[in-house]
Amino acid sequence: MDKDNKILEIVKQKFTEYLTANKCRKTPERYAILDLIYTDQRHFDMDSLYEAMNKRNFRVSRATLYNTMQLLLDCKLVLKHQFGQNISFYERAYNNDFHHHLICTNCHEIQEYKDAELRTVIQNKKIKRFTPSHYSLYIYGLCNACAKKEKAKKI
Amino acid sequence: MDKDNKILEIVKQKFTEYLTANKCRKTPERYAILDLIYTDQRHFDMDSLYEAMNKRNFRVSRATLYNTMQLLLDCKLVLKHQFGQNISFYERAYNNDFHHHLICTNCHEIQEYKDAELRTVIQNKKIKRFTPSHYSLYIYGLCNACAKKEKAKKI
DNA sequence: ATGTATGCAAACCATTTGCAATGAC
DNA sequence: GTCATTGCAAATGGTTTGCATACAT
Fold this sequence. Notes:
Two copies of one chain form a homodimer.
Chain A: H1 2-21, H2 28-39, E1 43-45, H3 46-55, H4 62-74, E2 78-82, E3 88-92, E4 100-104, E5 110-113, H5 116-124, E6 130-143, H6 144-154
Chain B binds a DNA duplex through residues 23-27, 29-30, 45-47, 59-64, 66-67, 86-88.
């Protein structure tokens, strides 16, 4: 899609600017990883990213994956989440409709939850002696399926 | 303090109810851990809990610590947080003035942030097909000290 | 008496690190 | 040519697991 290509160009440029500003080298590995994320991987963990890179026949080591991810986090092109398990999840940060997360404490399913009012209220908070850059709101509870199962159990 | 003792009694009873309901044994280790948390450890990680238990001359294995913490999480007497590093933090959940968290992305300091309006708005949200039990709001940014340092750097 | 919980040590697994080889500049 | 970056393999460190022993019931 044209729009996606445009976004890809923008994030590549932002990445280039960041790398230049920080005197980092512009390696093909780094751009390939960014490309994959902004083409195929809206949400992902390290393992699936590693395999997706392999599938594209662009083999990178895990070390490079972690190194690059740190850069992408630093320049805010990627967000990192930890939902209570010991796995880190990542998602695109640029032009990714902002959302909150609903986490089922039973089956660990994660849903996106968009709510403009919540976003506005949280973003407009003035906080003393703190300069906010971004936030994560995780709401824990039971997804619909698990709530039904719990109900059935009690009867 | 009297009030603290009362709270301790209440959480012990809640724990007892949970253990009974789930056919778990009421071991001295489990109660000693709960006692420590609700007496001395408002916020803690596993390592500091382990050492604090030792200082009380009540040695427990890390395995027991993890096992017990899972029970305390299940019965909602303890909350778990992960702020982006690979360490899990815990805090009391019962009668612990609810608060959000401010995380400095530079020095990783964590501050509590109380805001009744935010809490109300978030708690009163009706979410379709999801039954919330609790939530975590993490606001990332620069603490006062780090913001000053950044400013100085740029000049 | 039964079987759950404990302590210990080993295993696990995501992430990090050290180092020689590669390649961006 | 120089030095940051890569891949690899080993190390790290928080958490989990297996198993024999202890102990709550």
